[in-house]
Specification:
Layout: E1 6-8, E2 22-26, E3 31-35, H1 58-70, H2 76-88, H3 94-108, E4 115-117, H4 167-174, H5 178-184
Parallel strand pairs: 1-4
Antiparallel strand pairs: 2-3
Length: 188
């Protein structure tokens, strides 16, 4: 599947147990979930207005976990300076954090994909648009992914490949080859 651009849904209601506030990284002992805590009372709140619960020290936890998991990865020293400032900033809204991380990742992957934010919520996508809003969920098995078939690459820990981790795993382990690995797994 090839698309000319991406529309980011800015006005959907926040969905718990989704990738909207979590990702997975491979540590020495296990796959670890990095979760950005959100303030309570957010069930029927637009994602754009969802506030991060900054009373929890999630930024330091995330950065230390990334350092421990990838500090010895081949490209950590090269890419870490792009991510470290993210964890030094005091973010108010989850949506803004996600857009910033997405923008950085696209830049590092050298992918020039136009990102457009929706201006309102439509339950169904307009004609001619592929609606992927509910296609990616942590509970989905890899067989249900419609975009990408994981391609095996050397990871920092273990001998068995662990698919569907955060893009930082691919960046820190493969560096400039990361976009080639992604392209190799695209489903047509």
């Amino acid at each position: 599947m090839r698309f000319g651009g991406v529309q980011i849904e800015a006005y959907e209601h926040y969905q718990k147990q989704s990738f909207r506030n979590r990702c997975y990284v491979l540590t020495a002992n296990k796959v670890d979930a990095l979760t950005v805590p959100v303030q309570q009372g957010t069930h029927h709140q637009p994602i754009r207005e969802l506030r991060i619960a900054n009373d929890q020290n999630w930024r330091m936890h995330h950065w230390r976990c990334l350092q421990a998991a990838y500090g010895k990865a081949p490209f950590f020293e090269y890419y870490a300076p792009y991510f470290e400032p993210i964890y030094q900033k005091n973010w108010t809204f989850l949506f803004d954090l996600n857009v910033e991380l997405l923008t950085i990742c696209l830049k590092l992957l050298q992918l020039r994909i136009p990102l457009n934010l929706t201006e309102w919520y439509d339950k169904s996508a307009a004609i001619g648009l592929f609606d992927a809003r509910s296609r990616l969920n942590p509970g989905n098995s890899p067989e249900t992914y419609v975009f990408h078939q994981p391609v095996v690459y050397p990871q920092n820990f273990g001998v068995d490949f662990v698919p569907n981790l955060s893009i930082v795993d691919l960046l820190f382990c493969q560096g400039p080859s990361a976009s080639d690995v992604l392209r190799a797994g695209l489903r047509e």
